[in-house]
Amino acid sequence: MIENERKYFKDFEIVHNFTTYYANGYVEYNIEKGVGGNYEGYDFETVYHIEICYIHLYKLLYYNEKNHCMVDILGKSGYSNIEEIAKDAIWYEFE
Whose CA is closest to 86, among 67, 59, 63? Predict the structure, then answer.
């Protein structure tokens, strides 16, 4: 049996090139549940296999010191590498 579960995060910090980025979104997991046994084969237990299947970002922000405001860079041209770095950092943290 496979179930899905989401873990939400807010203001997850990613530091890259002396700039701090903040990510909001969720991590979606696939949870596969099965039945396993012990070494003697008499007792059974529930065995879980959990893996990340998707990372969704709602916002990816950084503080612009020139304008003194937070700027959302999610989906903007020129920032796709920051999105990938953020997803990798989130993947590493939530795995």
Answer: 59
pLDDT digits (tens, 9 = 90+) for 23-36: 999 999 999 888 77
Least confident of 8-22, 29-43, 56-70: 29-43
pTM of the model: 0.80
Which H/E stretch holds residue 75?
none
78: left (phi over 0), alpha (psi -120 to 50) or beta: left
Query: Cβ distance 3 to 31 under 8 Å?
Result: yes
Contact assessment for residue 22 and residue 37, using Cβ atoms and an 8 Å cutoff: no
